[in-house]
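Example record

The entry below shows one chain as it appears in the dataset: sequence first, then structure tokens.
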Amino acid sequence: MTGNAQGFSANRSIEGPSRKFKPEGYDPASIENIICEFNFHTACGLLHTDGSSMYMPDAHVMESVIRYNWFIGNGQRDFRWDGNNRPLLGVHGNLYRNVAMDTGVKRMSPSGGNGFRVKGSYHEVYHNLGLGRGAELNIATEKGGNAETITRNNAASHFTDQPIPGVSSHNYVARKEERRIQELLRDLENWDFRPKANALSLIDQGTPATCSIRGEPVAVSQRYFGRAPDIGAYEFGDDFYWIPGRQTASASMPIPKNRAGQVPLDAV
């Protein structure tokens, strides 16, 4: 990918040895935000030694929008914003409503952030979901990073670093709670990431979140039921379930999966 005004939408990236998205080339005189949305990355980075399935160098982070993506069963880190705090680079990114799930094939990075690696600062990080040891959410603190980042309504098996820098609230950090996130969601085997009816630690436990993209407000928590938004990428009781990946003329990736067995009776 080259240039400034870039989009990467509705793709299914599967079974590759290295990263699947990295923008190249940049003209600082003409900044345009990159939008990566509704992409499904699975079995990527199987031979990569130091990389991410979706990676953005610091110059491309400004006003970028990363939303409605799934990262499932990848061999290396799922997502990374690069950044530097001396001088300040990699700022003002928007990361919301993404899912990362570790299925046990991932090689762990010594620097952490094997799910989401967020460097830089002044980011807005809302309603993301990280499942498993290799899908943690890392709001990085190296060199004073993310002192101005806002992190809310996220649920992850593990957050690094702790405490979360910047402004953070209404996040579910599973290792500090009585129940694992896997116990709170409806059907991970069939990629149904909605909260269960008894997931009281997630349902109505968030706070309304609005991010700013090139000066325009975007209501990230616009669709919610009850007294407050749910924590995580999906809302309990919502009849709209977004599914990422390539869109074909006929349905090709139903949730629950076609011919799936042992589907919970309330997961339809």
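Notes for this example: Confidence is low (pLDDT under 50) at residues 1-5, 15-21. The two ends are 38 Å apart (CA to CA).
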